[in-house]
Amino acid sequence: xxxxxxxASRVASHLRISGAQRGFSSVxxxxxxxxxxxxxxxxxxxxxxxxxxxxAQDHLxxxxxxxxxxxxxxxxxxxxxxxxxxxxxxxxxxxxxxxxVEVNEVLTESPGLVNTSPHEEGWIIKVxxxxxxxxxxxxxxxxxxxxxxxxxxxx
Length: 155
Description:
28% helix, CATH 2.40.50.100, three-stranded antiparallel sheet, 6 helices, six-stranded antiparallel sheet, alpha+beta
């Protein structure tokens, strides 16, 4: 955990959300968009890469399985098209609509990458966007940080 704090303090493009009561901390990248269901989305032209946030992986615990959709599948923001399973719970994946153009096959053998590197090696899928307007409905890093802090305060 100390390494996470050190890493976050060294990288200017990150924010740290913390709550002193449990020592809770999550890294929030400034260049990503976020869904209320705790997925991150990185938009690059008409393509998007996404996975679950550091906040989500921290709450899920050790990830043991990642359900990946088939290449070419048309996915919708309103429908579940994959899941991340941990020893504690299952989290559905559905932050944005598009056609699946790439999946992170490494996760089939190493699902724990979602825990150790949720924003880099633990990305889940890449899609060609079908509705770019959906990305505008997602939260920026500041709104997501506030959303997490408010959610944390409720519990």
